[in-house]
Amino acid sequence: MGHRRLEVDGVSKRYGETVALDAMTFDVHAGEIFGFVGSNGAGKTTTMRIALGVLAADAGEVRWDGAPVTHRTRNRIGYMPEERGLYPRMRAGEQLEYLARLHGLSRSEASRATRQWTERLGVASRIGDEVQKLSLGNQQRVQLAAALVHDPEILVLDEPFSGLDPVAVDVMSQVLRDKADAGVPVIFSSHQLELVERLCDRVGIVRSGAMVACGAVGELRSGGAERILVDAPQAPPGWAAGLPGVTVVGDATGPTLLELAPGADDQAVLRAALATGPVREFARRLPSLTDLFRHVVSNEHTEHTEHVEDTGGTAA
């Protein structure tokens, strides 16, 4: 099972003049959590719908385990749509059993799986309630149960964490981790970048329908410009402004955050700081995923994919 992966290869989609996807390419390996981030309208949902076969691509292909995704494969995908797709007037438990049977489980298997997932997700006491009577957080939990109830081989989740309280986020995060550990490729989109940073093995940043950066979170972060946090309490304002290759990112009050151009001498920065008096802290700071995202999304000139590693796909 080690080599199984979901591949999105050169997928394009247009709506009239609007390019929704432009040769979108990436893959998600078995046992990996892949975070899909981008502004609204960047193409995340379109990509997911094409992967599911809900939408046809104009060009390119989606493969699972080396073969094009077919109706049979799609039956093995657990999907959580962004616009939640449960029947509002159906009881939560009946809804889950119905969906499980739709995916080929027997009545007793469907009932057992429904019990297992509603207990795991903390909504077992709600299975007799109509979906529309549940709180938003509990509707989310039932929606996740709907994606899991047929024991899928692949999980595709569109904004699964939106509207969840911190406890539910922890429960859902643990479920996704457990699924990945069991060898399932998990892909989810999210606007909560600190969550993506904490949870994902790899991240793809999408802009205007194309993948603009893709790689392990640590590699993407360390691939950014080097930053140094300097706490020199007696340093006058602007003490670092004239240093070669150094940009002051922030020093409103307290420690100064500096960005170093490639090849800039951090020891020269340290000497300049020591010349002002004591230095309490002098530490390298990696940019957060939020910083990277801002940089990539606002920087319209980086049109080429920065592939930090060989993901088996070609750069878009």
Automatic annotation (TrEMBL):
<dbReference type="Pfam" id="PF00005">
    <property type="entry name" value="ABC_tran"/>
</dbReference>
<protein>
    <submittedName>
        <fullName>ATP-binding cassette domain-containing protein</fullName>
    </submittedName>
</protein>
<dbReference type="InterPro" id="IPR017871">
    <property type="entry name" value="ABC_transporter-like_CS"/>
</dbReference>
<feature type="domain" description="ABC transporter">
    <location>
        <begin position="6"/>
        <end position="233"/>
    </location>
</feature>
<comment type="similarity">
    <text>Belongs to the ABC transporter superfamily.</text>
</comment>
<dbReference type="InterPro" id="IPR003439">
    <property type="entry name" value="ABC_transporter-like_ATP-bd"/>
</dbReference>
<dbReference type="InterPro" id="IPR050763">
    <property type="entry name" value="ABC_transporter_ATP-binding"/>
</dbReference>
<dbReference type="InterPro" id="IPR003593">
    <property type="entry name" value="AAA+_ATPase"/>
</dbReference>
<keyword id="KW-0067">ATP-binding</keyword>
<keyword id="KW-0813">Transport</keyword>
<dbReference type="Pfam" id="PF13732">
    <property type="entry name" value="DrrA1-3_C"/>
</dbReference>
<dbReference type="InterPro" id="IPR025302">
    <property type="entry name" value="DrrA1/2-like_C"/>
</dbReference>
<dbReference type="GO" id="GO:0005524">
    <property type="term" value="F:ATP binding"/>
</dbReference>
<dbReference type="InterPro" id="IPR027417">
    <property type="entry name" value="P-loop_NTPase"/>
</dbReference>
<keyword id="KW-0547">Nucleotide-binding</keyword>
<keyword id="KW-0046">Antibiotic resistance</keyword>
